[in-house]
Amino acid sequence: MNNPQHNPNDIPEDREPHLRTPEVLVAEDNALLALDVVDILDTLGVDVLGPVASRIKALAILDKSHASAAVLDWNLADGTADVIAQRLEAEGVPFVFYTSEPDTVRALWPDRPVIRKPGSVLELLAAIEKIMKKLREDRARTSGSRAA
């Protein structure tokens, strides 16, 4: 019986986080604004996790998937996005807040990008592009270190 040896470096592309298409979680309880965010993400060629209107649903998605990044409204249908943000931060996942309460969020999360809503779609796009650029750089760095 021919039994080829399994090479641990032969991991399917979809199983390696740095080779997958980025997946961005969208937590926004306003359906129209959520669709705007999804449209922006579609133009950037990323997969969208959600959109979801509650933190319970957002956390359930994070239990099943590994988000590459996230766009969070501060006030969701079932409370604030603090629990989601804390989890993303603990997992090293970049995120941006898109909120009608930017001062509150900046006071709590001074190191995170905060975009006022409803605001400039271009400003939101720029913040998301910055996150995606960092993800691409991280993937390139990881791919380069694996090739060495």
Molecular structure report:
- With 148 residues, the chain is an alpha/beta fold.
- It has five helices and seven strands; from the N terminus they run E-H-E-H-E-E-E-H-E-H-E-H.
- The strands form two sheets. A five-stranded parallel sheet has the order 2-1-3-6-7, sandwiched between helices. It has a two-stranded antiparallel sheet with strand order 4-5.
- Strand 6 (95-99), helix 4 (102-108) and strand 7 (114-116) form a beta-alpha-beta unit.
- Helix 1 (31-43) crosses helix 5.
- The longest helix is centred in the C-terminal third of the chain and has 27 residues, at 121-147.
- It starts with 22 loop residues before the first strand and ends with a helix.
- Mean pLDDT is 83; it is low at 1-18.
Please state roughly what percent of the residues sit in beta strands, choosing from under 5%, 5-15%, 15-25%, 25-35%, 35-45% or over 45%: 15-25%
Mean pLDDT: 83
Separate helix tally: 5
Computed over alpha carbons, the radius of gyration is 17 Å
Strand order of the main beta sheet, please? 2-1-3-6-7
Tally of strands: 7
What percent of the residues sit in helical stretches (DSSP H or I)? 40-55%
Class inferred from helices and paired strands:
alpha/beta
Summarize the structure.
This protein is 45% helix and 18% strand. The protein is of the alpha/beta class and 148 residues long.
Describe the secondary-structure layout.
Layout: E1 23-27, H1 31-43, E2 47-52, H2 55-64, E3 69-72, E4 75-76, E5 79-80, H3 82-90, E6 95-99, H4 102-108, E7 114-116, H5 121-147
Parallel strand pairs: 1-2, 1-3, 3-6, 6-7
Antiparallel strand pairs: 4-5
